[in-house]
Write a structure and sequence with these properties.
Number of helices: 14
Helix content: 40-55%
Order of helices and strands: EEEHHEHEHHEEEHHHHHHEHEHH
Bound molecules: 5'-O-[(R)-(carboxyoxy)(hydroxy)phosphoryl]adenosine, zinc ion
Shape: globular
Radius of gyration: 22 Å
Length: 409
């Protein structure tokens, strides 16, 4: 296979409702990051419709990849590898990206790299940390075409990664499909992960979306609840979370549950006679194609705004408590928060404040890298390119793919 030392990886992501392609150099320099969102189409149905998602990915994949290369100013022959999300996600949606990536990599004669979507989210933050990026590849120090270089590159040169340490990073991945806590360790060659917490029912983003729908707001609900919360009193409705821990004293599991708060919001709506106002809001919004914040706010009375702010305050508080408890228990060296809900402004503010109070470093992805994108996939593929950890033609979609060692309990 002809090798290429440009350090340029084409990332492809199609696990849910975004068709995305990006070109990233050396695992950290984003040359392009193109996302074709299907959100407006799925909004008509109040959630992602898998069959429609696959059809849209098929329609979008070629133009999105072409645009990513164009914006990066890179020719396909210059790519060193093609990386693609292999799971978790919707089977039909994943298959579109995987089939395309396989054919593209094969046609170019470049390695194919399979990436776990959850690891991608974590790398959306890691790629921004100076310590994690490896130096640029150049043929003077490393020659892939040489007969000698059969060893993985990581054994032949300094990669500029952090020195292995006993203190792991704690990663909270919080999105529409996932709410997981991972310990992430760099062992000098690769990252490894251990799942130390997860939701036992709904993901946090799913709770945002369901509560928004329940209150007559559009899909996806997270961004709307985020913005409307500033106008309500977060202490107006006291929501409580039951503590969940399926682990042992030696290895506790810092779990989450978000289906209870959704039911509590529903009960509040019923007992406070909010139904008619919600239906009026729903009907009004269905007539306005792209409502702005002022329009939506005008359709929400004080009681609705207080309920929205209280829901958000409780969810963010719960994410924060569990994350800080896990960080303290596992002596984490720092916290990274990623996934769609990491775009939330109150979450960022409270995590930054509370972590600083404990002398802990907390980092978030740039907003454009919080939600699904392909730059994070290309970034996560970088250590695998260095290690020669490639997929072959048998790569298939893994809708239930897990990251790292299994959680306790
Ligand atoms: O990571 P992502 O794009 O897709 C998944 O892998 O699920 O996350 C989408 C989720 C949706 O549930 C959306 O409502 C939520 O992230 N989200 C937010 C915000 N922006 C997106 N939730 C709260 N606040 C936000 N600003
Ligand atoms: Zn995601």
């Amino acid at each position: 296979m002809p090798k290429n030392t440009s350090g340029l990886i084409l990332g492809i992501e199609s696990s849910c409702d975004e068709t995305a392609a990006a070109v990233v150099r050396d695992g950290r320099e984003v040359l392009s990051n193109v996302v074709a969102s299907q959100m407006e189409m799925h909004a008509l149905y109040g959630g992602v419709v898998p069959e429609l998602a696959s059809r849209e990915h098929l329609r979008n994949i070629v133009p999105v990849v072409r645009e990513a290369l164009r914006q990066a100013g890179v020719r396909a022959e210059e790519l060193a590898a093609v990386a693609v999300t292999s799971g978790p996600g919707l089977a039909g949606a994943l298959l579109v990206g995987i089939s395309f990536a396989k054919a593209y990599a094969f046609g170019l004669g470049r390695p194919l790299i399979a990436v776990n979507h959850l690891e991608g989210h974590i790398h959306a933050v890691l790629m921004q940390r100076k310590t994690v990026g490896a130096p640029r590849l150049d043929s003077e120090t490393w020659d892939w075409t040489s007969e000698e270089t059969t060893k993985p590159m990581s054994q032949t040169r300094d990669m500029g990664h952090p020195t292995p340490t006993d203190h792991p990073l704690l990663a909270l991945v919080v999105s529409g499909g996932h709410t997981h806590l991972y310990l992430a360790r760099w062992n000098g060659l690769a990252w490894s992960y251990r799942n130390v917490g997860r939701t036992v029912d709904d993901a946090a983003g799913e709770a945002y979306d369901k509560v928004a729908k329940l209150l007559g707001l559009g899909y996806p609900g997270g961004p709307w609840i985020d913005r409307l919360s500033s106008f309500g009193n977060p202490k107006a409705v006291p929501f409580r979370f039951a503590g969940i821990n399926r682990g042992t004293t030696e290895a506790p599991s810092f779990d989450f549950s978000f289906s209870g708060i959704k039911t509590a919001v529903l009960r509040y709506v019923q007992t406070h006679g909010m139904h008619d106002a919600i239906e009026r809001r729903r009907a009004a919004l269905s007539r306005i194609p792209n409502p702005d914040l002022d329009t939506i706010q005008a359709l929400c009375d004080a009681e609705a705004l207080d309920l929205i702010a209280s829901f958000q305050g409780a969810v963010v508080g719960n994410l924060l408590r569990q994350t800080l408890a896990a960080a303290a228990f596992y002596h984490a060296s720092g916290i990274v928060v990623s996934g769609g809900v990491a775009a939330n402004r109150e979450l960022r503010r409270r995590f930054a404040e509370e972590a600083a109070a404990r002398g802990l470093d907390v980092q978030f992805p740039a907003p454009a890298l919080s939600t699904d994108n392909a730059a994070m996939i290309a970034a996560a593929a970088w250590p695998r390119l260095l290690a020669g950890d490639f997929a072959d033609g048998t790569l298939n979609a893994s809708p239930q793919l897990r990251l790292g060692s299994a959680p306790v309990g």
